[in-house]
Design goal:
Layout: E1 2-10, E2 16-25, E3 30-34, H1 41-48, E4 56-61, E5 64-65, H2 74-78, E6 81-84, H3 96-106, H4 111-124, H5 140-152, E7 158-162, H6 170-185, E8 189-193, H7 197-203, E9 206-211, E10 214-218
Parallel strand pairs: 3-8, 3-9, 6-7, 7-8
Antiparallel strand pairs: 1-2, 1-4, 4-5, 9-10
Helix pairs in contact: 3-4, 3-5, 4-5, 5-6
Length: 232
């Protein structure tokens, strides 16, 4: 579903954020992208979201080489990609409902369908009773779940998330990650960037580690009772 083949990304000043990175995430898989700050995690996600373009190499999502997409095809592609940010990027002057509805409004979806999809997405993240609330009245965990609802309202094939639990305490982080796991269980392909190795290990998914812009892939086993935690 997601493939990077020998991808290099060089920014101005000749700094290489990625150096010949190759990785593959299968359809329906949940995988974590880990590494220290500056390792290249955000760059990988930006390439998948077509926010950035590689200097060399190919990025292929759902069989489509992103480097060969025509400009008119890019909006349609982005509708298939859900993006969750660490800082939510919610609109403070809009209600929870209006924040989630925004991607559908942009694509010209009818009002009746918008209402059905928005309420379904809010229900999935446990915020249906908060639809008229502005983001500032929601807790940090609720705001992050609202960001997830906005990311999934268009029913994307792929969901990418950049440090989605970075601003949350451990209990809220676990709650948000459990939500990602439930979404993955119904078939959504996910690549989640996280520096929280304990949280990653708890879910036992495959871990792709970036070091200095290069990939070092190692399997991650779920924690056991003997280590003080139980795998889900």
């Amino acid at each position: 579903m997601i493939r990077l083949d020998n991808v290099t990304k060089r920014y101005d000043g000749a700094r290489e954020a990625l150096k010949g990175v190759s990785l593959h995430v299968e359809a329906g898989e949940l995988a974590f992208l880990t590494g220290r700050s500056g390792a290249g995690k955000s760059t990988v996600l930006k390439l998948i979201a077509l926010i950035e373009h590689p200097t060399r190499g190919n990025v292929i999502v759902d069989g489509r080489n992103l480097g060969k997409l025509k400009d008119r095809e890019i909006p349609g592609y982005r509708q298939q990609i859900g993006v969750v940010f660490q800082d939510n990027k919610l609109l403070a002057d809009r209600s929870a409902y209006e924040n989630v509805a925004l991607p559908l409004i942009i694509t010209g979806t009818g009002q009746r369908e918008i209402g059905r999809r928005v309420r379904a997405a809010l229900d999935q993240v446990g915020l249906l009773d908060r639809e008229r609330y502005p983001p500032r009245t929601l807790s940090a965990g609720e705001q992050q779940r609202l960001g997830i609802a906005r990311a999934i309202v268009s029913r994307p094939k792929v969901l990418i998330a950049d440090e989605p639990t970075g601003n949350l305490d451990p209990d809220l982080a676990l709650e948000v990650m459990a939500l990602f796991k439930r979404l993955n269980e119904v078939g959504m392909t996910m690549l989640i960037a996280s520096h929280d190795l304990h949280l990653v290990e708890h879910f036992g998914a495959r871990c792709i580690t970036l070091t200095g812009g290069q990939v070092l892939e190692t399997p991650v086993a779920p924690l056991t009772e003997s280590t003080g935690a139980v795998s889900p």
